[in-house]
Amino acid sequence: MFANSMAGLALGVTLIGAAALADDITVQTAQGQVTIPQSPSPLAVFDLSAVDTLTALGVTVDGMPSPSYLDYLAPVAETAEPVGTLFEPDFEALARMAPGLIIVGARSAAQIEPLSQLAPTIDMSIWGDDQIGQVHARLAAYGEIFGHEAEASALANALDDKIAQAAAAADGKGNGLILLTNGGKMSAYGADSRFGWIHHALNLPEAQPGLSSETHGQGVSFEFLAEVDPDWLLVIDRGAAIGQAGEAAQATLDNKLVAGTKAARNGHIVYLDAGRIYVAGGGVQSMMGTLDELIAAFSDAD
User: Fold this and answer.
1) Which of 283, 240, 184, 195 has the alpha carbon at shortest distance from 69?
2) Over the stretch 274-301, which tens digit does the pLDDT of each residue have?
3) Which helix (H) or strand (E) holds 165?
């Protein structure tokens, strides 16, 4: 085992030394500016939002986590090498691949130090405030790194157009509450949360201002939903997102108190594609797909 570790470290030193000979580029990451080789290959990516955006740009992803969870990323997963999970890298698989660059995200950022021993590694997490701005920043950075600036600009414009359409569709249609279900449990998310970009993109007023911005949201009850009485209920089913057995969101919300809300009475409970927003949130395809769902829902409303 020690010999394998030393071999991996030696390979990492060789990789980093070789990378230094290539043209370098300085890009903005979640942890500040980092200088890396331009057009690095092979590419290992541990963040599905990054896989989402890179694929949209036409960049080849050579290694990615398994499982990938998302049907629309299945073609990428079929050709990419499995290099671990969303949280835990497979260092032996990475050593065999000898990547020119490793990209981590929110779920894998804790691994950046050991991964950096193998190859240049950057944290491209999308989290916290101004997620739409971060999506634009990641698009621009990936465009520079891989020489796909024109594609990045076109996608950024398409995203802005989609946001404008969604805001127009939601204009004057009332307030909203974002609800995540996990089996029989429920958490609410506000404008400052991981899903809060929806409120900002649509200019959608919060049904309940001041909700916790914690990663797992604010635990709520059916009585809370009845008291807040949102015009719209935007639902994310965590279990469905990760293929976990358990009570589905529709079953959880099949409740008299929920049925009495304005959202339920008016047919304004929207079950979002949970995998897209929960697993690959921040990917440009994910974000535009969610916006399409919201445009359809609000456009159909009276």
Assistant:
1) 240
2) 999 999 999 999 999 999 999 999 998 8
3) helix 149-170
Structure tokens, 16:
């980093």
- Please tell me what DSSP assigns to residue 89: B
Q: Give the model's pLDDT for residue 215.
A: 78
pLDDT at 23: 85
Region at 81 (left for phi over 0; alpha for psi -120 to 50; beta for the rest): beta
Torsion 78-83-84-87 (CA) sign: negative
**Under DSSP, is residue 292 helix (H, G, I), strand (E, B) or coil?**
helix
User: Per residue in 13-42, pLDDT tens?
Assistant: 444 444 444 589 999 999 999 999 999 999
Amino acid at 105: G
The structure tokens listed for 146 are: 């891989």
pLDDT tens digits for range 58-96: 999 999 999 999 999 999 999 999 999 999 999 999 999
From CA 67, how far away is CA 224, in angstroms rounded? 35
Q: How many angstroms separate the Cα of 154 from the Cα of each of 146, 232, 285?
A: 15, 32, 13
Domains of the chain: 2-153 (3.40.50.1980), 169-299 (3.40.50.1980)
